[in-house]
Amino acid sequence: MDIVLQQLVNGLTLGSVYGLIAIGYTMVYGIIGMINFAHGDVYMVSAYITAIAIAILTFFGIESFPIIIVGTLFLTVAVTGAYGWVIERIAYRPLRSSSRLAVLISAIGMSLILQNYVQLSQGANQQGVPTLLTGAIRFSVGDGFVQITYMKLFILFVSLLGMGVLTYVIQKTKLGRMCRATQQDRKMASILGIDTDKVISTVFVIGAVMAALAGVLVTLDYGAFDFYVGFIIGIKAFTAAVLGGIGSLPGAMLGGLILGLSEALFAGLISSDYKDVFSFSLLVLILIIRPSGLLGKPEVEKV
Amino acid sequence: MSNAVIRKTLISLAVAGAATLAQADVVIGVAGPHTGAYAAFGEQLWKGAEKAAMDINAAGGINGEMIKLVKADDACEPKQAVSVANRLVDSDEALAVVGHFCSSSSIPASRIYEEAGVLMVTPASTAPLLTDQGFPNVFRVCGRDDQQGDVAASYIVDVLKAKRVAIIHDKDTYGKGLADAMKSTLNAYGEKEVMYEGLTRGEKDFNALITKIRSVDADVVYFGGLHSEAGPLVRQLREQGSKAIFMSGDGIVSDEFVSVAGSPTYVEGVLNTFGADPTSYPAGKKVVGEFRASGYEPEGYTLYSYTAMQVAAAALANNDLDPIKGAEWLKNNATDTVMGKKQFDDKGDLVVSDYVMYEWQNGKSIQLN
């Protein structure tokens, strides 16, 4: 019993990280119908910025955890958001009227550029950040125990908060209405006076900000990263977005949680060798039953 | 790249080409992960080989001809290893190669060197399959995983007296080979492991696997793999409150292991097998001193790489620069190196392996007696 509970905790934290990154894939797809393959690498960049931010803050003699964490979050989110904006500006906007394929290739190119740029400027070695928040809650269940580090609780709290704020922004604010209008019909939205280019830029920034949240949390928790770290987690998050229904915001969060939980439970209860096989089989199964994902709307051909 | 830089590169390439023709230097490749996640090992390889080549050249080269090193980057990827091996053989016309590092790269590359008749001396690839292929031109100056597995398994049984051993590997040639070798020796002692599973290289979250390790109540966790996965693994093991002894092979021996794990406290008490301290050989005192004087600590595989270069140079020097005859010669004659006399058997393995147990204390791997 304790083991199942512990696996649920493992799965939830992993899943909420997948969910945060999946948001970037799903929102960009929703609004301009492209898959931003550079998104995993934006996450990777944010891991490096996290380490740099921590180094800067400790250099100034700041040692209290709350100040470091808030400062790091702020710096990383700002810089990574800027990356998101610049990437859209130089790699995707010039190709706005080209075929979908051209943008896709541009995205793959952007991904390679980011990886190589980081590798050249930061070195190819494994990087690490020291543990900032130590300690854990432990409670016994039956004969065993469940142990949750404070860091894991923090990950759950921040990612749920981030998702909550984003949902509020999209559903209730003027910016959100503009996003939704652009998603439904870009031409009509621009006729009605919405600056759709600006909305698209904003969506890229939001995606990058969510990836930056994930980057800070994961980097602080696992402590290790390199220039290639965005690849696997990017693929997993993309899978989560498709699983939940690409284009759907709650779908991305749900997909992330399902993927994280299924990986943890399968690896923990059956076999870690085949956990990826299981996750992707689950994806195939869901797509057979619901071709547009769990919460996705079926694509209607616009005439 | 600016025009000036391009011009400079072209000129230096032209000069280098001319020099090759004029003096017919002995070209030796240094193949390994010079970039990528394992670049720290590539640097050790390069530093060792570079120093050895400089020392040999300063002493008059190989039969009067200078060694010219060519850096070949395989990033520890089998496909890239094959393509750089082809490049070394075809366009660089290397006579010998020091490398590769990862067994998964060395094995496919060794076939190319065999076909081309190039001598291959790896400082670090320990997978048994590499020399079990039966190629006459392949040598290693390190031990084999099965020798490493023997040492680890007997330590678990005789010293730790552990009964519940969980075996984890990274599904790669090296990691799984090491884990399998350990497992078969352990089973030969009459002990059955409580768990045997693989993880995915490149991932950082192993919490699910660790909860499972906890659930089987393991005393010892044996990991076949490299430090980039071992770091997060041992950290998450401790974070979930497990006190199991963590044990691994030579793949975790790098200062990066500590930084990747987050802090020295997480790696305190971690055990690993490794060749007896390469800096401890009397024959290597001078070279080690020179390395330290230049501000570089010859850690990990640096001296193995130095040794591999010496072995390759000795084979070429005693056989009129013929790599095939040199390979034959190495099997019948011992070579003096900075790590003592090295004698190879018919497969190209060392006759005497030098594996011993190390323990991590205060962020350093210390040899146990």
Describe the structure.
The complex is a heterodimer of chains A (303) and B (369). Chain A has one domain: ABC transporter involved in vitamin B12 uptake, BtuC (Orthogonal Bundle). In chain A, 73% of the residues lie in helices and 5% in strands. Chain A contains eleven helices and four strands; from the N terminus they run ααααβββααααβααα. In chain A, helix 1 packs antiparallel against helix 8, helix 6 packs across helix 8 and helix 10 packs across helix 11. The radius of gyration of chain A is 20 Å and the shape is globular. The relative contact order of chain A is 0.21. Chain B is α/β, with parallel strands linked by helices. Chain B has two domains: 203 residues, Rossmann fold, CATH 3.40.50.2300; 144 residues, 3-Layer(aba) Sandwich (Rossmann fold). In chain B, helix 2 packs across helix 13, helix 3 runs parallel beside helix 4 and helix 6 packs across helix 7. The longest helix of chain B has 21 residues. At the A-B interface, helix 1, strand 1, strand 3, strand 4 and helix 9 of A face helix 8, helix 9 and helix 10 of B.
Write the layout of secondary structure elements.
The complex is a heterodimer of chains A (303) and B (369).
Chain A: H1 2-32, H2 39-59, H3 65-92, H4 100-122, E1 127-128, E2 136-141, E3 144-149, H5 150-172, H6 174-184, H7 186-191, H8 196-222, E4 224-225, H9 229-244, H10 249-269, H11 275-289
Antiparallel strand pairs in A: 1-4, 2-3
Chain B: H1 3-23, E1 26-32, H2 39-58, E2 67-73, H3 78-90, E3 96-98, H4 103-116, E4 119-122, H5 129-132, E5 138-140, H6 145-160, E6 165-169, H7 173-188, E7 195-198, H8 207-215, E8 220-224, H9 227-239, E9 245-248, H10 256-261, H11 264-267, E10 271-275, H12 285-293, H13 302-317, H14 323-330, E11 335-337, E12 340-342, E13 355-361, E14 364-367
Parallel strand pairs in B: 1-2, 1-3, 3-4, 4-5, 6-7, 6-8, 8-9, 9-10
Antiparallel strand pairs in B: 10-13, 11-12, 13-14
Helix pairs in contact in B: 2-13, 3-4, 6-7, 13-14
Keywords (chain A): Amino-acid transport, Cell inner membrane, Cell membrane, Membrane, Transmembrane, Transmembrane helix, Transport
Protein name (chain A): Amino acid/amide ABC transporter membrane protein 1 (HAAT family)
GO biological process, one term (chain A): L-isoleucine import across plasma membrane
